[in-house]
Here is the input.
Amino acid sequence: MEILWVHKPAEHIQSTLIGLARLTDDLSTAGLPASDLQYIESIEHPVRRSEAIGVRALLRYLLEEHWHMPYPGTLRQGRQPVLNGYPNIGLSFSHAYPYVAVVVSSHFQEVGIDVERLRPQLLRVAPRIFAEQELLWAGNDLEKLSILWAAKEALFKAYARGGLIYRTDLLVEPTPKNNFLIGSVLKEGAPLFMFELGVHRFSGSLLCVWTNHRLNPR
Here is the structure.
């Protein structure tokens, strides 16, 4: 596995880590604890299994190299992975083979991340998944549509309760800052969560969006 990018948001430089890695042929489960291995062994599809190994190997790297913390493994709790023994640490995974991404935060539990390649099919389905004001901003710009989609995926993971309609319950607004967005999770039109979302563009039509920090109080 090749570590491509590690980011520490300025607002939470000691408490939040974002990482991106590329899966390689030498990917191994060495060093992963039993809780991880049990889950990985239950996955039959070889690509999905590789992605499951990759996100956990990346998380292990982030914790050990940057927080100097032994990697305890993960458990599944509802829609989000949980760091074994650390229920108050927020954790989210994403993958777009051969890339995997992780966000981990001791500052807040509601975290989400999504890594995406630019996919032309978004142009066809955009009216069904994006609100009118989002489409006014993005138009037919595939990069902007991909950023919107990744932002909604990150918001969905941060909310972690399901039952959301992407077009109406997950709203994304541009900001004057090129690498940040504002994302809201709504129910019956009222905002439940508001986040600043970070955006990072990589070469090769790849981008990553994550919940940078929560804007409204708990």
